[in-house]
Amino acid sequence: MPREELYELQERRLRALVYNLYHYSPFYRKRFKEHGITPDDIKKREDIAKLPFTRKSDLRDTYPLGMLSVPKSMVIRFHASSGTSGKPTVVAYTENDVKNWTESLARALTSIGLGKDDIIQVSYGYGLFTGGLGLHYGAEKIGASVLPAGTGSTERQIELMMDLGSTAIACTPSYMLHIAEVAEKMGISIRDETQLRIGILGAEPWSERMRRRIEDSTGIDAYDIYGTSELSGPLFTECTEKN
What we know:
By secondary structure, the chain is α/β, with parallel strands linked by helices. It folds into 2 domains: 1-53, no CATH class; 98-237, ANL, N-terminal domain (Rossmann fold, 3-Layer(aba) Sandwich), CATH 3.40.50. Helix content is 43%, strand content 16%. The protein contains 9 helices and 8 strands. It has helices at residues 3-24, 26-34, 56-61, 95-111, 131-141, 154-164, 173-185, 190-193, 208-218, and strands at residues 75-80, 90-94, 119-122, 145-147, 168-171, 198-202, 221-228, 233-237. The longest helix is centred in the first third of the chain and has 22 residues, at 3-24. It is elongated, with a radius of gyration of 21 Å. The chain starts with a helix and ends in a 6-residue tail after the last strand.
């Protein structure tokens, strides 16, 4: 898409977003009025600087659904944070939200070389946590086979990895290291006795040193995946340059 067309598309979507928030979200209408903003003030990309910030504390202060900007009848799912620092942050999803989430992760997985010939073992949690389902949908979107392993039962996960020929795994970096350690105790080499070649690792902080340790011990390419629960969960991976 030519750059000017891209800018026009971005501006149309920005105007539509602000219009919908102003007219359908009491929270945002109040916030905009506090800053002297109406939808007529937002026309160009540069106007985004006029908009007030939304903070995680806003989600907590309006718990559970005070920031909802669509009718509840349009909500098809809820996810939530663990609430370790207080009330959890609840995020509502429309059907279109799930479609966009799926598309974003499909693009991310494709960008690191995954496709319809891969078997992707999803070893993130399924449930209120957003990690498992998002990657599951993205993997199915690109035509890959999904092994919805979830968390725990590490020896069983390793057995399935070997028996089914998983070529990629999605989990936390620390769990990837744990899998490697358990496999070693079982007398199994992830590098030499499985088809695993890519790790999609996230949901916790990790370092370049940890990446090297994972790659050296397992022989996989380890990629960081990131996002926030407030934006629907995991959304992006780093590119193959890993920089």
